[in-house]
Design a protein that fits this description.
This protein has 256 residues and is of the alpha/beta class. It has helices at residues 16-29, 48-55, 82-87, 98-102, 108-120, 133-137, 141-151, 158-161, 182-199, 202-207, 221-225, 242-255; strands at residues 5-9, 38-43, 61-65, 92-95, 124-129, 165-168, 210-213, 232-235. Bound molecules: 2-phosphoglycolic acid. 2-phosphoglycolic acid is lined by residues 9, 169, 174-175, 213-216, 234-238.
């Protein structure tokens, strides 16, 4: 069975003291035992060491980076390498979030380079994919996601692919309050799992965690997390308040 994961993606939000208070509160109020899901805080770079320190004594919490450089090291002012993340003991990193793809124009080659560098450094990429509103309107969502898989995550060997977590995030649902319906989410998640079966094996597909992201909140998380091929969520806005993030974590916990 795939690992069940609830990951909060803070994006460029919260100040240092707010970050500390939020992580402490979420850990304090959430179930933390061997039956609980894995809960991740994907925080801005300056808070990584803090998040790592606060989560390291827990059973189910971990810190993640939101991005890393596609270069190994050297004269790249402002960049943060995968090996730097590893030196802080970080175990997860988002790759290819739609905001990185659209605002920062990250392309498939860069995303593949990032995933390989992360994996070399024993960091699990949480690889994001998803179609835009226009693509959905033209019923191109399957082609778009298949293309993203073929040119990015499917370039990995089976061994390396098996370490990756996938997040399906329809771009039109991110930050809009308009989540995918249960039917839309299950349809794409099942499509992704079948594609993994075809590319690698049934066993690999059945082990891969496929998270849903895009306006996932307290009200819809139960329905989304109950779907056969949804193994958890990547939560933006609702991860910025302890009450809502704890409720979403507890929803997953109760379903396990
Ligand atoms: P949202 O963001 O939950 O605020 O829609 C999700 C994401 O971008 O990961």
């Amino acid at each position: 069975m795939p690992l069940k994961i609830v990951a909060g993606n803070w994006k460029m939000n919260l100040l240092f003291h707010e970050a500390e208070a939020l992580i402490r509160e979420v850990i304090e109020k959430s179930p933390d035992n061997e039956n609980a899901p894995l809960n991740i805080f994907a925080v801005p770079f300056p808070y990584l060491n803090l998040a790592q320190n606060l989560t390291q004594g827990t059973k189910n919490f971990a810190a993640a980076a939101q991005n890393c450089s596609s270069f190994k090291s050297g004269a790249y002012t402002g960049e943060v390498s995968a090996s730097m993340l590893a030196s802080l003991n970080i175990k997860y990193c988002l790759v290819g979030h739609s905001e990185r793809r659209t605002i920062f124009k990250e392309n498939a080659d860069e995303l593949v380079a990032k995933m390989n560098l992360l994996l070399e450094n024993h960091i699990i990429p949480i690889w994001c994919c998803g179609e835009s509103l226009n693509e959905r309107k033209q019923n191109k969502q399957f082609d778009v996601i298949q293309h993203q898989m073929n040119t990015e995550v499917f370039t990995l060997t089976q061994d390396l692919f098996e370490k990756v977590v996938i997040a399906y995030e329809p771009v039109w649902a991110i930050g809009t309050g308009l989540s995918a319906t249960a039917e839309q989410a299950q349809e794409i998640h099942s499509f992704i799992r079948k594609s993994i079966s075809k590319k690698y094996s049934d066993d690999t597909a059945n082990k891969t965690s496929i998270l849903y992201g895009g306006s996932c909140n307290v009200d819809n998380s139960k329905e989304l997390f109950s779907l056969k091929d949804v193994d958890g969520g990547l939560i933006g806005g609702a991860s910025l308040k302890s009450d809502s993030f704890v409720k979403i974590i507890s929803t997953m916990y109760e379903l396990l």
